[in-house]
Fold:
Amino acid sequence: MIRKIVYSIFLATIVLALVMFFAAYPFGKNKMTVGEYYLNNGVAQTGASNIVTSVVVDYRGFDTLGEVSVLFGAAAGVAILFFVLAENRRERKNITSPNFVVKVGSRIIFPFILLFGTYIFIHGHLTPGGGFQGGSIIASGFLLLYLAYPGTRVSRKKLSAVEGLAGLTFVLLGLYGLMLPESSFLFNFLPKGQLNALLSAGILPIIYIAIGFKVAAEFAGIVDDMMCEVICRGGEK
Amino acid sequence: MVNLANPILLIAIPLLFVFLIAFSSAFSKSIAKYLPIFAFGLNVVIAIMIIPDVLKNGLVIATTAGFKPPIAIDMVVDRLSLFLAIIASLLGFVVSIYNVFYIDEEPEEKFYALFTLLVAGVIWMIITGDLFNLFVAFEVTSIAAFGLVGFHRDKGAVEAGFKYLVMGSIGGSFLLVGVIMLYAATGTLNIVDIAQKSAELTFQQKFLAYALIFTGLGIEGALFPLNAWLPDAHPAAPSSVSSILSGIMTTAAIYAIFRITNTIFDYNQIYFFLMFFALLTLIFGEVAAFFQKDIKRMLAYSTIGQTGLFFFAFTLHSTNGLQGAFMQIINHSLSKSMLFLIVGGMIMQVGSRNIDDFAGVGRKMKVSAFFLAVGMFSLMGLPPFFGFWSKLKIIFAALQQTNILMVASVVIILLMSVVEGAYFFKLLQAMFFGKPKQDREIKEASLGMLTAVVVLGLILLFVSFYPTPIIDFTHQAASDLMNKNYINLALKLGGL
Structure:
């Protein structure tokens, strides 16, 4: 009882302090110096009609390289934790087969999911969405395949190759910027093109396509690892 | 022509190799082993090429995306961050060599990719000039570390990894909210720009942001009440990973606290408060280390103690204090990484982490044990070694501020040095003079592993017997920090 009172007093103090401090911040006021700059100059300087993309991939593209690495690290971490040696793998037999509707439905819908995901990341610089979103949509298509056909195996080597190649594209595009007179990492060196055209905004669409492939490969890898946890261990404890 | 002395390459090259490892693993399993060596070898070369620029101008700025800093992200390298980046690259290089002979567990290619990512993230945290980018670097480092801590996949490793995952993610969230608070108040994310505008902020605005950022980074930097993950994570990880975690990762988080406290929130009341945490960390780490039976856990607690020591020196907020802190960081990074590498080799031979099983090992593994003794003596601060100079500097700096609290702090530091000496000597005595418990055949560690150890050991011995350049350099770095040259030079060199 006394402990509960002490705890609640402690919590109340913290909440009170937080409220007091948060009240001191000018949220909702138009004070974002940098943000205002992006809004006023983003379209002209980057050629991307999606202002979010111009910030995420161009102005703060280096952060995005970091986020891509974070996802890479997370996928590799999952792969380490769920790793099963080849000789220990035993296919689990007693899996209830999914019903007919799931099987046929997933076959019909899978190509459309791929198409939609590709659309999302190719148009990342024009419409809402981008590499991360498109990649996750594609990976959800793989998840559907795994659920409908529990025996599905995607080749991990191919996934690694795609993942690595996409990451290399991103970094090499950035490094190319260093060789130009501007000598700046991730410098947008390609022509900006016409606003709202598919081929516009310089290197932004290329980066988003690379990110799309990378995210799709990584999420598919995570799905594969987690399915393997159920299926490859042969049901033994 | 490409200017190779560009700080951004210190991050871009390891990242390039991370993805190259992923790509190469699709074709061949054995290439991945050797790629990190090239990555960090190149990094060391580039870092050395940046030295003349930093010595000339005091600061080097690299922009990204072709825009000026407050608009885009920039990397800022001054004497201090360059120095830490060199240490991180060097440790990455040496430990990569060690890894080739040490790691024999699947999935190897994932290990090497994550290892490269971990060191890249640490360097990233050190040289970034943007607060949100610091958070991204923090995430890169922690995510890589979570996977590596659980690499052995036994019960202890997974549990330690999970504990670290939970605490690290909470820390990351705190840091993120703190950064958002600062962004809300100033409208910019560049460290120099925020420092310029922070004068206009009210106390409430500064304090909440600082508290959140301090808590977030403090978890990674293992400050006392926030460090519950460390004594589990360091022993459970492969020794080469513990060596990086202990040697440079916690240091990088502490560096970020240094940098943010000193550049953005410069109000003097905070230092007294921080000093309290530093001393608690020191006492907790050293006393806990004394009671450990697990050799790697003992080293992990000793890391907490050492962190407390150089954090204390930082809170003295004087040129001498900061210089002592930087010297202690160098001493700790070199010695502790080396100790973890040696202990990793010994555990391979002994087959246990219990201190009692190490009796007599020193007589069998002579080279390893010699460098183990060197590293421990340097950490304790025995006279001919570098640790002596750094501890001496810290104590002098503390006694410069004549008040009773400082005297008490110095007494605590000396007392803790004695505790440190006690547990290190206990181990060394058992190792050299104890009776071997088992009849297990104990051989010297493999040549490749020894190479890594010997390289670090020789560097440590070199700086011990010829400390002048480092003392001069750290003095310069400390006075840069005290004079706010980070802000002044960045403004002058167009960092804003």
